[in-house]
Design a protein that fits this description.
The chain is globular, with a radius of gyration of 31 Å. It is built from 31 helices and 14 strands. Strands 1-2-3-4-5-6 form a six-stranded mixed sheet, with helices on both faces. A four-stranded parallel sheet has the order 7-10-9-8, sandwiched between helices. It has about 675 residues and is α/β, with parallel strands linked by helices.
Length: about 675
C-alpha cells in the first residue's frame, strides 16, 4: 500500500511538472533563415503554428550537397499524444532521388546535436521520387530509423489543415511500424539499450592498453555492443577496426594473408588505404615484421594506439573453425603468435578485443598435436549478461512509446522471468503481442494488460521457438558436449549431469556464462523456461519416464509425428517421379496383402495413401526406390530399415502390451533419428 501511494505521489509531481513546463507553438525570436529557400521558409513558418521551432541551419556536404534543417520542439499536443520529449530533426531534401547521402547528413546532424534531438524519429520534407520504397530499402539494409516523410507541396501554402496532416502522418508512420521486430545488428545508437556498464568497461580497457574479451550466445547483443565501442572510440579519434572473422576473407586464407587483411581493414577504416605494406610483402617469413611496421604508421599518424575488434573469433580457432587449415591449428598458431608478439614487443602500439560464442581458444592449453597454445589464459573470458527488469522496462517502454504501445508494469516482470532477460527474445515476444492486437490500416494506440500476456503465453512460446533454436544452434554445431550437458539437465538426469560437470567444469562455466543455467542451492537449473522446453524436445531420446503409460504416450507421439511426414514424403516423391498413373502401379507393387491390392486398384493415387498404405508398405516403397530417398536418410539404408522396423514393432495399439525401460531406451532414439532426418533433409 505504501509503494502504491509513493507511486501516486510521484506521478502527480510529474504531472505538475509537465503543467508548469507547458510548451506553446512558435519560433525562436531572431532565428536566422537567410540561406533557406522560399518554400523552406514557408514550411518552417507553417510548422511553427503547432511546433516550437527552436533552431535552424544548413549542412553542406561535398561540393554541391545542401541540407537545410530545423529543430522542432514538441508542444503539449505532441508530448501527450506521441510521448515526444526530445526535439525532432526536420530535414529538407530538395533532390529528385532519396539515397545514402541523406542518411549520412542525418547522422552528422544528430552526432553534433545529440543532446537535444530525438535519435529515432526524423521529419523528412523531400522532393524525391518513390520515397516509401526507398526508405523501406534502407530499413531492410539495417537502418530502421523512423522517417516521417512529407512532400514539399504538402506543407507549403496556408497553414490550414497542416496540423491534422502532421498528426495523421505521425500516426500512420509510428503506429504501423514494428520496432520490436528489428533483428539486424544495431550499428547506430538509436536502439542501443542497457549496456552502459559493459561499454565503459571495454573503453576503460582500451584506455589502459589492455586486451579484452566478450563472449555470449547469438542474438544477445554482442555485435551491437561492439558497434557501440566502435562509435565511441571513433568519437575519441581512436584508429579502430571491426574484423568479422566469419568473413571467408579471413578464415579461408592462410595466416599471413589473414594478418594482411587485419592491417588492410584497419587502414581502410581510418583513411589510410594507400599507405603501408602491400599484400605481397606479407610472406610467411616477413608477415609479423610487416604487421608491426604498419601498426607503427597508424600510431605515428593518430598519436594513439590502434584497437582491433575480432568478432566471431571461433572462425580463426583450432578444433572449431569451419576451415580445415585453421581447425587443425596449422594457421591458428602463427597468426596468434604474430598478434601476441607484436603486442608485447611494441609498447602502446595497439590492443585487441576477442569476441565470439565460446572462450575455447583462451581456455585450451594445447593445439591438436600437443603444441602449446600461445594465447592460453592470455585474456580473462568475459560473458555478456542478460537484462534485468529495469533494463527490460526501459527498452520496451521506449520502443513502445513510438508505436503507441504501452504495457502493464507486471508485463515487464513476466517478460524478464520467461525469457531470462534475453533482449532479443523479449522484443520478439513484444512483437507478437503487438501484432496480435493491431488492425490493418487502422493506426491506434494499444495497451497490453498483464491478463492478456498470461493468456497468450503458449502462443508466445510457439512464436519464439525458432529464435530459440537459432540461439542454441551454435552449441549443437560447434560445442556438442555442452549441448549434451543441457540435454541431460533437461530430462532431469542429475546423476549423469553432475558426473559430467565434475569431469568438465569448464563446460558448466560456459553454460552459466551464457546465462542458460544457474545454480540454486545445490542444483543447477535452466534460467529460461522456453529454452528448457526446446532442449527437452531435443533430449526426448534421453528421457525415460517411470510409468508405462508415459512411455507409451511418448513413443506414440514420436511415431505418429514421423509417420505423418513419412507418408506425405513417399506420396509426393512417387507422384513427382512417376506421375499419378505409373505411380499407382508402383505403389500397388509395394503392398503386401491381396485385400489391400484389390482395394487399391479401385482408388485414386492419393486415396491409396489415405487408407490402404500401411507403415511397412511405406518402408518397402522407399527401399525399392532407395536412390530417391538416400540423402534424406543420411545415405544409411541399413539404419533406416532397422529403425523403421523398431518403430513398427513397438506400438501401443498393436504388437505389444508392455514396454520395459530398456526397450524404451532402445527404440526412442531410433524414432528421434527418423524424425530428425525427415525434418532436416526433406
Amino acid at each position: 500500500m505504501c509503494e502504491d501511494f509513493k507511486r501516486l505521489v510521484l506521478a502527480k509531481l510529474e504531472e505538475l511538472k509537465i503543467m508548469n513546463d507547458k510548451q506553446n507553438p512558435g519560433i525562436l525570436p531572431g532565428l536566422e533563415l537567410r540561406d533557406f529557400g522560399p518554400q523552406e521558409i514557408q514550411i518552417i513558418n507553417n510548422l511553427s503554428a503547432f511546433w516550437f521551432v527552436s533552431g535552424a541551419s544548413i549542412l553542406r556536404t561535398g561540393k554541391r550537397n545542401r541540407f537545410p534543417y530545423a529543430f522542432l520542439k514538441p508542444t503539449d499536443l505532441f508530448i501527450q499524444r506521441f510521448n515526444f520529449h526530445a526535439q525532432l530533426l526536420c530535414i529538407f531534401h530538395n533532390y529528385p532521388e532519396v539515397d545514402g547521402r541523406l542518411l549520412e547528413a542525418i547522422d552528422k546532424i544528430i552526432a553534433t546535436n545529440g543532446h537535444r534531438v530525438d535519435r529515432l524519429c526524423i521529419v523528412l520534407v523531400t522532393n524525391g521520387e518513390v520515397v516509401s520504397s526507398t526508405l523501406s530499402r534502407f530499413e531492410a539494409d539495417g537502418d530502421p530509423r523512423i522517417m516521417v516523410a512529407f512532400r514539399y507541396h504538402e506543407l507549403t501554402g496556408g497553414v490550414s489543415a497542416k496540423e491534422a496532416l502532421m498528426i495523421r502522418r505521425l500516426e500512420e508512420t509510428l503506429y504501423t511500424k514494428d520496432l520490436f521486430s528489428i533483428s539486424s545488428v544495431l550499428k547506430t545508437e538509436r536502439y542501443f539499450y542497457g549496456r552502459k556498464t559493459e561499454l565503459q568497461r571495454l573503453i576503460g580497457q582500451y584506455n589502459n592498453g589492455e586486451n579484452g574479451s566478450l563472449f555470449g550466445l547469438r542474438r544477445i547483443g554482442k555485435s551491437s555492443l561492439l558497434w557501440a565501442v566502435l562509435r565511441t572510440l571513433k568519437q575519441m579519434t581512436v584508429p579502430v577496426a571491426f574484423l568479422d572473422c566469419s568473413d571467408p576473407g579471413f578464415h579461408k586464407t592462410k595466416w599471413n594473408k589473414a594478418l594482411f587483411r587485419v592491417k588492410d581493414t584497419l587502414f581502410r577504416a581510418n583513411g589510410m588505404e594507400d599507405l603501408g605494406k602491400q599484400e605481397t610483402a606479407y610472406t610467411e617469413e616477413d608477415a609479423t615484421t610487416c604487421f608491426a611496421s604498419d601498426l607503427a604508421l597508424v600510431r605515428f599518424k593518430f598519436n594513439r594506439p590502434s584497437y582491433l575488434i575480432f568478432d566471431e573469433v571461433e572462425n580463426l580457432c583450432f578444433d572449431v573453425s569451419s576451415s580445415e587449415h585453421w581447425r587443425s591449428g596449422e594457421n591458428f598458431l602463427p597468426f596468434w603468435q604474430a598478434i601476441r608478439s607484436t603486442y608485447q614487443q611494441s609498447t602502446n602500439m595497439f590492443s585487441f578485443l576477442m569476441c565470439g560464442t565460446n572462450p575455447y581458444p583462451l581456455e585450451t592449453a594445447y593445439l591438436p598435436g600437443g603444441v602449446d597454445n600461445p594465447i592460453y589464459k592470455y585474456i580473462e573470458p568475459y560473458y555478456l549478461g542478460f537484462f534485468n527488469v529495469d533494463d527490460v522496462e526501459r527498452m520496451i517502454s521506449h520502443l513502445g512509446f513510438y508505436m503507441g504501445v504501452t504495457f502493464d508494469r507486471e508485463v515487464y516482470t513476466y517478460l524478464t522471468d520467461d525469457f531470462g532477460g534475453h533482449p532479443f527474445l523479449i522484443k520478439q515476444a513484444c512483437s507478437f503481442l503487438r501484432l496480435n492486437r493491431v488492425t490493418e490500416n487502422v493506426p491506434r494506440k494499444i495497451h497490453i494488460r498483464k491478463e492478456e500476456y498470461r493468456a497468450a503465453r503458449d502462443q508466445i512460446k510457439a512464436h519464439t521457438r525458432n529464435y530459440i533454436a537459432l540461439i542454441l544452434q551454435v552449441l549443437t554445431e560447434r560445442f556438442p558436449r555442452e549441448f549434451s550437458l543441457l540435454k541431460h539437465l533437461a530430462v532431469d538426469d542429475k546423476k549423469l549431469f553432475n558426473a559430467y560437470a565434475e569431469d568438465d567444469p569448464r563446460s558448466i562455466e560456459h553454460l552459466v556464462g551464457y546465462g542458460l543455467i544457474e545454480k540454486v542451492t545445490q542444483d543447477f537449473c535452466f534460467r529460461i523456461k522456453l529454452v528448457e522446453a526446446a532442449v527437452q524436445y531435443d533430449a526426448r531420446d534421453l528421457a525415460c519416464p517411470e510409468s508405462l503409460e508415459e512411455r507409451w504416450a511418448l513413443l506414440s507421439k514420436e511415431r505418429n509425428q514421423f509417420e505423418f511426414g513419412f507418408r506425405e514424403l513417399v506420396r509426393s516423391v512417387v507422384k513427382m517421379g512417376y506421375g499419378a498413373k505409373a505411380g499407382k502401379d508402383f505403389i500397388i507393387g509395394c503392398l503386401n496383402k491381396q485385400v489391400q491390392i484389390e482395394k487399391a486398384r479401385c482408388l485414386d493415387f492419393d486415396d491409396i495413401f489415405r487408407g490402404e498404405m500401411y507403415f511397412l508398405d511405406l518402408k518397402r516403397a522407399v527401399l525399392k526406390d532407395w536412390d530417391r530417398y538416400r540423402f534424406i536418410f543420411n545415405d544409411d539404408k541399413t539404419k533406416f530399415s532397422e529403425y523403421v522396423d523398431a518403430a513398427n514393432k513397438f506400438r501401443s495399439d498393436a504388437h505389444a502390451e508392455t514396454i520395459t525401460k530398456e526397450e524404451f531406451r532402445s527404440v526412442m532414439p531410433k524414432l528421434v533419428w527418423l524424425t530428425k532426418a525427415l525434418k532436416d533433409n526433406s
